[in-house]
From TrEMBL:
Protein name: NADPH-dependent 7-cyano-7-deazaguanine reductase
SUPFAM superfamilies: Tetrahydrobiopterin biosynthesis enzymes-like (SSF55620)
Pathway connected to this protein: tRNA modification; tRNA-queuosine biosynthesis
Gene from which the chain derives: queF
Keyword Calcium in annotation: no
Organism name: Alicyclobacillus hesperidum
Amino acid sequence: MLNQPSKTLVTVPNPHPDRVYTVEMETAEFTTLCPMTGQPDFATIHIEYQPHEKLVELKSLKLYLWSYRNEASYHEDCVNRILNDFVAAAEPRSAKVVGDFTIRGGIHTKVTVEYTK
């Protein structure tokens, strides 16, 4: 696996597909560009999911989130796309993504999206 941004989420087999459990992951290093100004937007991304047959490999998740760094995207769009791509790759029982963006123009934005099978 390279150390370059990638839109590919790699999965590995879940060694406990019969058990219902929750995995939580968080990074405070998410960056994207504001499509209106071109200025960087920073966020903490929190992903919570109940895996079924597959787990998302963490380095691929890091490189996937890194791929947004030079992309212009609204907060709501980023978080929804992250959830869509995560669900498409991992096929979890359920998933939730929260994007907690730093204050911009005096406004704090927090976007939460959920998926249930």
